[in-house]
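Please discuss these two lines.
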Amino acid sequence: MIASGPVRSAARLATATLAMLLSGGAARADEPAPAAVAPKVEALAAPAKKGRTLAEALDLADKNHPNIKAARAKLRFTRAQLDEAHSAPYSLFKLSGGVGVAPEIVGTSAYSPDNDVSLSSGVALAWRINLEGVLPLWTFGKISNLWEAAEANVKVHEAGVEKERDLVRLEVRRAYYGLLLARDGKLLLADVKKTLDDGEKGLEAKVDDGEADVLDLFKLQTFAAELDVRAAEATKWETVALAGLRFYTGVADFDVPDVPLAPPAHDVLPVEKYLEGASKYRPELAQARYGLEARAAQVKLAESGFYPDIGLGLNLGIGVAPEIDDQINPFTYDPANYLRYGAGLVFQWNLDFVPQEARLRQSKANLAEMKATVELADGGVEAEVRVAHAEVVDWKSRRDAYAKAMSRAKKWLITVQQGIDVGTIDDKELLEPAKQYAVNRFNTMNATMELNLALAKLAKATGWDAIAPDGVTAPP
């Protein structure tokens, strides 16, 4: 039996409410909703309030996140170590000296009228200064291998900064996408709640007058209770995402624009392209390779420990004691008044060959461990890229399929609505197409969120940040 006018209106209100409730998010700009869900389209058309873009959020996180700051501090430390390694071998000089009082002493080593030295006679300040050191000439690779290891260590920590940035970028994008989706859902739920409250009041009056079925009222009240649950969930996820963004960016009042979550513009490429990008940009791979260079240099450094160090020894000494006679005889030792200088080839050879051989074996073991780490990184990154690429392809296919299903369900829904209006279709036939439209609309929005996040994961897996929204790294 075809429902009467008031009952038909109540039934359509209930089914439209179901559609909007199950949709769980905003409609796309290129997919206008039917008349039953028009209030959401109006809400999205409202002027957007001021907020920060994802690119701004990423830039703020790069400047303010504690993990990135810590990684940069470690990088500054290793650069200081490199400066130390460059300067230390040429800084093997020591300057010593002193100032004191010396009594008056006259004479030579052969004869002196002073039989006893007493400070009660004439005294005066005396001083001395000595400079000595070695300039390395040949160390059998100790210096060059030390530099090579220190330079590789700097590159390891440079890649470490990029590694922390990639981790933070993924979390910033996850929170940003989640916040947009949560707010889309809140806008939708607010519109539905307002429509539902108005409809429930009218339906209660019609039920009291016997013009509507009480079951339709129960449906609306059930939807209203579920609506409150969904609104609470949306509020929670909005709070969680916003708190995360404010922590990551270091901005206490950080907020985002009121815009709907859109699908990414990046065209998915063959997986080989992303593997090529990972070999160039993935910071963990760079860390492993530079770590291998450092360990190889340490092995060479340990090998050079078996050989002596040869250098140019330099010394200069000056002593001045005015109250003590200067001994001009070159064969007389004079610790008070002197000017000594000299230069010559010197060497130093540590003969701890047994401990040195043990240190060499340790260095070789570290090198073998790092080679295994490089193999693990290469294979692990390739697997990670392939999995992330498959996830992107999967969510893109799902989103396309859900969008197509939503479009067809919308046509189905409109057709049924038109049939109800002319009296050729019963009101109860509206429920199934409305439900299918709502479910597929929600699935489309959820797939949009997951596709954005999957691309962000692929960007992290490859180190190629340009493939994610607001990326900054140039493609290979």
Notes: Residues 353-422 form the longest helix (70 residues). The chain has a mean pLDDT of 82.
